[in-house]
Amino acid sequence: MEDRIHYLLQQFTAKTLSQAEREELLVLVENSTSLLSDEIIKMIIAEEEQAVNVVEEKWSPVLHKILAVDKPRRSPKRILMNSLKWAAAAVVFVAFSLTAYLSLHKKKEHVFTADIAPGKNKAILTLANGRKISLSDAMKGDVAKEAGFSITKTNDGQLVYKIAESENVNDDRLNTISTPNGGEWQIRLPDGSTVWLNAASSIQYALNICTARQRVVKLDGEAYFEVAKNATHPFIVETAKQAVEVLGTHFNINSYNDEKVTKTTLLEGSVRVTHKNTNESEVLKPGEQSFVTLSGMDVKEVDVDEAIAWKKGYFMFNNEKQESILRKLARWYNVEIEYADPAAKDVMYYGTVSRFEKISKVLRKFEQTGEVRFDIKDNKVIVYKE
C-alpha cells in the first residue's frame, strides 16, 4: 500500500497522473489520510532540505495560504517541524486539487436501471444434533445449549460459546457455522479464539476444542483468526489443500473452492503451513503470505492490509484482474457475473472501495477507467469491454 501511495504522489507532483490514478488517489485521500500524510512525511525527510524545497516550489503559494506561515528557514531545529507542516498541507492540497480536477473532467456517469445492496451479518449455525439456527434472525441472548455449553448472541451480533459451570466438556461432535453469499459473521470459539467469517464460507469444529489434544477447525472459504494462546494444545486450521498449525497468532486464510490458490497471510506470531498432497512445509513470519496450489507452494512478503481489507470493511485491489475482483463482488453482493466480452476479464485495477456501498457505486469506479461498462439485470451483472 505504501509503495502504491508513494508512486501516486510522485505522479501527482510530476503532473502525469492518469484519470484512473486520480480517482484512486482521491479515494486514498478520503479514506486513508493518516497513511497518506505519513508517506508524504517519509518523502520529505528522505530527501531532507531538497525535498522541502521541492514541496515549496511545486505547491506554493497554495500551501502558504493553507498554513499562513512564512517560508521555512534552514535552521536544523526547524526542518522536521516545517516538514510535518508541509506534509499536512500537502494532504489538503492533494485532496483539493484532485477534487477540482475531477469536477472539471468528470465523464457523464452511466445510469444503472437496477441496483443491489451490499452484504450484511448473516449466518447459519448447525448444531451437533442437526438443528439449524439462523443467527441473523435469532434474538440477543441465549441461542442454544449443547454439551455443557451455552451459545449466546451478543449485542454486537457476535456468537459466543460459554462453558457451563461444573461441566467437563469432552464431546467430539461437530458444530458448523456457515455464511451465504452476501453474509459475514464473527464467532468466539469455546477455547476463546475469535474468527471472522467472510461471505460464502464455513468453519466446523468439535465441541471439545478446549480439551482436545489439538484444536482443529475446518475452513471452506475465507476467515480471519485471532487464536487464543495454549502451548499444549496447538490450533490447526484445515482446508482442502493445506493444514496451518499455530500456537497463538493473528492470520487470514483465503481458501475458496473457485480459487486456484489458497492464501495464508500472517499478521502476528508464527504459523506452519503444510501442503496436504506434497507434505511440503513452510513457517511464515509476520508480513508473509503462502500460496498453495494443487502441485506445490510458495511464500513471499505482501501488503497484509490487502489480505484483511474485507475484515475492515473495504475491498483493496493491487494490480488485480477484473475476473478475480468480480468473483469477490459476486460472493459479497450475492450476484451472478456474465461476460458479454471475455476480454473484460483481463483488465487490471488498483484501488480501494467500501464494501458497504451499493454495487452500482462500486461498478461505477471501474467504469471511470474507460475500459469496461456494466449493466445490472435482476440479480446479474453483465460486463462489457469498451
From TrEMBL:
GO terms for molecular function: sigma factor antagonist activity. Keywords: Membrane, Transmembrane, Transmembrane helix. Gene3D superfamilies: 2.60.120.1440, 3.55.50.30. It comes from the Bacteria. The chain crosses the membrane at residues 83-104. Residues 176-272 form the FecR protein domain. Residues 314-383 form the Protein FecR C-terminal domain. PANTHER family: PERIPLASMIC SIGNAL SENSOR AND SIGMA FACTOR ACTIVATOR FECR-RELATED, PROTEIN FECR. This is FecR protein. It comes from Pedobacter terrae.
